[in-house]
Amino acid sequence: AQSVTQLDSHVSVSEGTPVLLRCNYSSSYSPSLFWYVQHPNKGLQLLLKYTSAATLVKGINGFEAEFKKSETSFHLTKPSAHMSDAAEYFCVVTFPNFGNEKLTFGTGTRLTIIP
Amino acid sequence: GAVVSQHPSRVICKSGTSVKIECRSLDFQATTMFWYRQFPKQSLMLMATSNEGSKATYEQGVEKDKFLINHASLTLSTLTVTSAHPEDSSFYICSARDILPDRGPSYEQYFGPGTRLTVT
User: Fold this and answer.
1) ∠ CA A81-A82-A83 to the nearest 5 degrees?
2) What is the mean pLDDT of residues A13-40?
3) In chain B, what residues touch A34 (CB-CB under 8 Å)?
4) Is the preceding omega at residue A79 within 30 degrees of 0, hence cis?
């Protein structure tokens, strides 16, 4: 079975300060991990993905995440928050299953940016 | 590339009527599409996996007869909410999986913008 835990339901940071959104996963197999962002009443946009290549993954809009197998973590970071980063962020896990792969979503973290 | 559209973006219907939601992959072929439901301020819950040319696979607890899924072509899947009730009001999101033939599946799913269904 696979699962993903987002440790914070809500994170607030000031504009220009670093962002850290935490994610831990559980998977019996080597996982693929994703971070998606969702702006209000919009669909999901892929920020970045890890699929067993480099453990430090760089995504769009200055975001990056590091896969740490020993800690079963895939935290999302950004050096300097921008007002446009305010949104809901989902950590997602999947693993190879002979064409039957499903995404398992975390419960989401709402990021608020303080001007 | 890899754009998924949904139509309509927003629909209001009366209780007891049926509503069809379309999901299209605009610039790639998707043998597999997924339908999710999202309640306010909650995460996405997978409802069913839609495979082109075959029956959809529903997740536990999802009523097959209420949520009819048809994946008639490689670019179109439809979700029909039959005999809708107020509790069916939700945000429905579809996705299509990207398959890279040279490197095997990447497992990435491209999401549509969602359809907000309100049943009165």
Assistant:
1) 125
2) 91
3) 108
4) no
**Sequence-separated (6 or more) residues with CB below 8 Å from residue A64:** A48, A56, A57, A58, A76, A77, A78
Own/partner contacts of A75-78, CB < 8 Å, gap of 24 or more, are A75/A20, A75/A21, A75/A22, A75/A23, A76/A19, A76/A20, A76/A21, A76/A23, A76/A35, A76/A47, A76/A48, A77/A18, A77/A19, A77/A20, A77/A21, A78/A18, A78/A19
Encode pLDDT of B54-88 as tens digits. Answer: 889 999 999 999 999 998 888 999 999 999 999 99
Chain A and chain B share a number of CB contacts under 8 A equal to 52
Identify whether the C-beta of residue B56 lies closer than 8 Å to the C-beta of residue B71: yes
End-to-end CA distance of chain B: 37
Rounded CA separation A85/A88 (Å): 9
Q: Closest CB to B107: pick one of A36, A90, A101.
A: A101
CA angle A97, B94, B104 (to 5 degrees): 35
Alpha-carbon gap, residue B7 to A6, rounded angstroms: 31
Q: Evaluate if residue B38 carries a pLDDT over 50.
A: yes
- Give the span between the Cα atoms of A78 and A49, in whole angstroms: 15
Min Cα–Cα distance to chain B from A80, Å: 26
